[in-house]
Design a protein that fits this description.
Blueprint lengths: L21 H20 L4 H4 L11 H20 L16 H4 L6 H19 L7 E3 L8 E3 H27 L5
Antiparallel strand pairs: 1-2
Helix pairs in contact: 1-3, 1-6, 3-5, 3-6
């Protein structure tokens, strides 16, 4: 199968429990949003995943997947677990490389890398309590936050970008929902 003929796989998504403890609720809502993003990609070809929104926007479904890989890495692994990592796509020369570099990207490899990053993020924080406090990185190194804040921020980040994904998917093939 050529890269052009590749089709993004279908995914299943479980609704979060309506009654649970805090950690379970945060983890389940995050998983719900991770699956939603992949669900918006399911059944599309590489070319369709690279389809841009509307000029001048460079937004695409594949760009969103690549962006969320970077966000997963940044918050869970580089912040919460304090791993010494580099970004996968973003560079000093192009801070939006995850969006800008999709034209020549391998969609299958990028979606697989996203899934692997989610697995690594889960593993990185599995043993950490929600009250685990870490300093931020980058331009706000004087600020501290806890793992609870990271989970809540990630849910917010996914919710916002899944809204973008809804519009992108509808533009590509008219599909709504999931």
């Amino acid at each position: 199968m050529t890269a052009d003929a590749w089709i993004a796989p279908t995914v299943s998504r479980e609704d979060p429990a309506q009654v649970s403890d805090e950690r379970t609720a945060l983890e389940q809502w995050l998983e719900f949003h991770r699956a939603t993003l992949l669900g918006k990609c399911a059944g599309l070809t590489s070319d369709q995943l690279k389809t841009r929104a509307v000029a001048p926007s460079g937004l695409s479904l594949l760009g969103l997947v690549r962006h969320m890989l970077e966000v997963e890495r940044w918050w869970f692994r580089m912040h919460a677990a304090r791993e010494d990592l580099q970004y996968r796509y973003v560079t000093d020369e192009d801070e939006d490389a995850e969006f800008n570099g999709v034209d020549d990207a391998d969609a299958a490899a990028d979606i697989d890398a996203y899934r692997q990053e989610c697995d690594a993020a889960r593993a990185a924080v599995a043993g950490l309590p929600l009250d685990h406090v870490v300093p931020t990185r980058g331009h706000r190194a004087d600020v501290t936050l806890n793992l609870r804040w990271i989970y809540l921020h990630m849910i917010e980040e996914y919710a916002r970008h899944n809204g973008h994904a809804d519009l992108l998917r509808e533009r590509i093939d008219g599909s709504t929902g999931f």
